[in-house]
């Protein structure tokens, strides 16, 4: 169980960092919780897909997952940087619409697909492993969203640009780790 918790914390790390970056523009509590729920569900589902189809798709997917994550995170990061420089009357609190939540959920859960391939070796029941991954991600992402909002209120545009650069940096780190 300890190994499963450590694995769950590791898988949740990227989603937590993205939640911090995505919420610096004053995301509402409801939107932050919706984002955390989406991240938790996506991590769990992707790990389950990896568990179920890992032997068949594992090698093919691992050849491309890091590039897909880089593209998705860079897209959202560049959008955040652009929005940081919008005129004040155009600036509104982050709304994290459906498309943005979907893109971020996919981008942050790609590693969970690869992790899912290794889950059978842990000899933990699938529902327990997937619930642990999803719940830890949800809790960490919710805390990250609250922290991001706190940072955004204190540092404004500077932290928005840093958040956008952070998302791009996460994508680059994922590529470097895989190459």
The total of helices stands at 4
Q: What is the CA–CA distance across the termini?
A: 30 Å
Level of helix content? over 70%
What's the count of strands? Answer: 0
Mean pLDDT: 83
* Uncertain stretches of 5 or more adjacent residues: none
Structural category: mainly alpha
Description:
The protein has one domain. It is globular, with a radius of gyration of 16 Å. Helix content is 84%, strand content 0%. The protein is built from four helices and no strands. With 179 residues, it is mostly helical.
Task: Itemize the secondary structure elements and their pairings.
Elements: H1 2-22, H2 29-84, H3 98-118, H4 126-178
Helix pairs in contact: 1-2, 1-3, 1-4, 2-3, 2-4
List keywords for this structure.
single chain, 179 residues, mainly alpha, 4 helices, 84% helix
Overview in brief:
The protein has 179 residues and is mostly helical. 84% of the residues lie in helices and 0% in strands.
């Amino acid at each position: 169980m300890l190994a499963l918790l450590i694995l769950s914390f590791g898988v949740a790390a990227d989603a937590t960092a993205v939640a911090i970056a995505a919420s610096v523009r004053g995301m509402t509590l409801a939107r932050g919780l919706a984002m955390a729920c989406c991240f938790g569900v996506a991590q769990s589902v992707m790990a389950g897909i990896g568990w179920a189809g890992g032997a068949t798709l594992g090698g093919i997917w691992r050849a491309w997952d890091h590039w897909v994550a880089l593209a998705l995170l860079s897209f959202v990061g560049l959008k955040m940087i652009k929005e940081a420089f919008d005129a004040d009357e155009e600036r509104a609190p982050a709304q994290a619409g459906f498309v943005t939540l979907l893109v971020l959920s996919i981008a942050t859960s790609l590693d969970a697909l690869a992790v899912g391939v290794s889950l059978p070796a842990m000899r933990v029941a699938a529902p327990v492993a997937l619930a642990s991954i999803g719940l830890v991600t949800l809790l960490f992402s919710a805390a990250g969203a609250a922290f991001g909002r706190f940072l955004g209120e204190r540092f404004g545009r500077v932290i928005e640009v840093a958040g956008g650069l952070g998302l791009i940096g996460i994508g680059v780190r994922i590529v470097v780790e895989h190459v």
